Automatic annotation (TrEMBL):
Belongs to the short-chain dehydrogenases/reductases (SDR) family. POR subfamily. It comes from Eruca vesicaria subsp. sativa. Keywords: Chlorophyll biosynthesis, Chloroplast, NADP, Oxidoreductase, Photosynthesis, Plastid, Transit peptide. Its EC number is 1.3.1.33. One of its GO terms (biological process) is chlorophyll biosynthetic process. This is NADPH-protochlorophyllide oxidoreductase. It is found in: Plastid, Chloroplast. It catalyses: chlorophyllide a + NADP(+) = protochlorophyllide a + NADPH + H(+). Phototransformation of protochlorophyllide (Pchlide) to chlorophyllide (Chlide).
């Protein structure tokens, strides 16, 4: 608590110091070759090992024209920040970006990449304050480039407390990145959040759902030129890919488990009402993340101009995400991804990708699920049928609102 209070004070100072910062105007990657496995496979059967010439970073996949059109119905552009508009506003302040789970892996690498630009103040929203502080220090993040604030997504009270604390710090909120996640592939029994939701969906989806619903007002109030809400997704939740077809596959079914509260007592701990499986629960939670991003886009983009986005950053096979997997998996998985699937990316590279979605003036399109090809050029990827199901997105939203006490 004392540490948290101290961080609030220091953040108040750092924000004022940062008023001379300018908008991140990092250049976008050029059109390059696509990777074999990192990109989506077209629906069900046709392998979409699309060659580089068919994809550009704006995502026009000619072979998947129908699918691309479907994807674009949920995606509309906001005016991007051009160099000339930057010239007019030379004294643009530093952007404030909240990154959940910034104490390791992708979140830490993203925080570091953003801090290094000198254009962002990163609020590291973490459940382990000391771990986050140590991680920021050992990553070499400049002291005034970040503030650690406590957030445990496995407790809705903690989420509300975080929002209160953040507001007390009187920083504008310009970008929110919902990155934190847990993965329990070897759990034979479910465990639960403070409110009694199965832990993976409770943390990865419901905690972030409440957080972003509450913070949307703060984003609305920001005067920053490009406000964004980013929810990290994954290839393994998309059954239109090879990776998404490795069992157990994501499937939300008719949401009967979610609607009954995921508590494992009078209902199943799984969204679809089935038997508990930790790996499936994680993949289901990623589907919820990707559906939530699109539902946000449909409900709020036009009115607020906020850019909503999701992404698959690549397979970062070395992160803490696999901490609960068996040692054999942990040792074989990185070489498997590096040399066989070629889907592997380093934490640093993945951090740059997510930082791009946070600040690149070329990535202002809303409703998009970004991916990168082998040479790290971004493109609009296509979500699986379930992960782009409009009706399911609406129902997940409505049921989640009830579970987190918003309806
Ligand atoms: C479930 O098991 C668990 O039950 C569940 O609890 C949860 O953990 C879940 O998704 C998580 O997994 C799934 C099961 C896969 O997982 C495993 O058995 C472990 C797989 C380990 C993955 C790493 C394998 C590494 C093997 C290669 C060694 C690398 C060496 C690197 C050096 C390279 C040098 C060049 O279960 C299934 O997926 C079921 C279907 C199994 C199909 C198996 C097909 C094998 C295909 C292998 C590669 C495909 C790539 C093609 C190219 C190959 C060219 C050689
Ligand atoms: P890590 O385990 O390294 O990072 C996850 C972060 O989430 C950690 O900082 C962890 O905190 C935090 N976290 C976990 N539970 C909570 C909680 N209850 N409250 C607050 N924070 C919490 O994994 P990754 O960096 O790999 O994962 C980051 C994101 O990337 C996830 O959304 C994941 O789904 C996604 N992703 C990862 C891929 C990969 O290959 N690794 C591929 C595709 C997507 P602590 O440090 O305290 O444990
Ligand atoms: Mg996968 C073909 C490409 C590919 C890619 C890009 C991934 C990404 N995986 C691929 C293929 C395969 N995987 C194949 C062929 C197999 C069977 C051997 C396989 C297995 C596998 C396992 C057991 N893969 C896994 C696991 C995990 O436990 C990871 C997981 O599902 O976590 C939910 C995982 C992953 N594979 C990926 C990625 C990115 C993951 C990590 C997690 C995530 O989605 O966030």
């Amino acid at each position: 608590m004392a540490l948290q209070a101290a961080s609030l004070v220091s953040s108040a100072f750092s924000v004022r110091k940062d008023l001379q910062g300018k908008l991140n105007a990092s250049s976008s990657p050029s059109l390059k070759e696509s990777s074999l496995f990192g990109v989506s496979l077209s629906d069900q059967t046709k392998a979409d090992f699309v060659s580089s010439s068919l994809r550009c970073k704006r995502g026009h996949n000619l072979r998947n024209k129908g699918a691309t059109i479907r994807a674009q119905t949920i995606a509309t552009s906001t005016p991007s920040v051009t160099p000339s508009s930057l010239d007019r506003k030379k004294t643009l302040r530093k952007g404030n970006v909240v990154v959940t789970g910034a104490s390791s892996g992708l979140g830490l690498a993203t925080a570091k990449a953003l801090a290094e630009t000198g254009k962002w103040h990163v609020i590291m929203a973490c459940r382990d304050f000391l771990k986050a502080e140590r991680a920021a220090k050992s990553a070499g993040m400049p002291k005034d480039s970040y503030t650690v604030m406590h957030l445990d997504l496995g407790s809705l009270d903690s989420v509300r407390q975080f929002v209160d604390n953040f507001r007390r710090a009187e920083m504008p909120l310009d970008v929110l990145v919902c990155n934190a996640a847990i993965y329990q592939p070897t759990a034979s029994q479910p465990t639960y959040t403070a409110e009694g939701f199965e832990l993976s969906v409770g943390t990865n989806h419901l905690g972030h759902f409440l957080l972003s619903r509450l913070l949307i007002d703060d984003l609305k109030n920001s005067d920053y030129p490009s406000k964004r809400l980013i929810i990290v997704g994954s290839i393994t939740g998309n059954t239109n890919t090879l990776a998404g077809n490795v069992p157990p596959k994501a499937n939300l079914g008719d949401l009967r488990g979610l609607a009954s509260g995921l508590n494992g007592l009078n209902s199943s701990a799984m969204i679809d009402g089935g038997d508990f499986n930790g790996a499936k629960a994680y993949k289901d939670s990623k589907v919820c993340n990707m559906l939530t991003m699109q539902e946000f886009h449909r409900r709020f983009h036009e009115e607020t101009g906020i850019t909503f986005a999701s992404l698959y950053p690549g397979c970062i096979a070395t992160t803490g995400l696999f901490r609960e997997h068996i040692p054999l998996f942990r040792s074989l998985f990185p070489p498997f991804q590096k040399y066989i699937t070629k889907g592997y990316v380093s934490e640093a590279e993945a951090g740059k990708r997510l930082a791009q979605v946070v600040g690149d003036p070329n990535l202002t399109k809303s409703g998009v699920y970004w991916s990168w090809n082998k040479t790290s050029a971004s493109f609009e990827n296509q979500l699986s049928q379930e992960a782009s199901d409009v009706e399911k997105a609406r129902r997940v939203w409505e049921v989640s609102e009830k579970l987190v006490g918003l309806a």
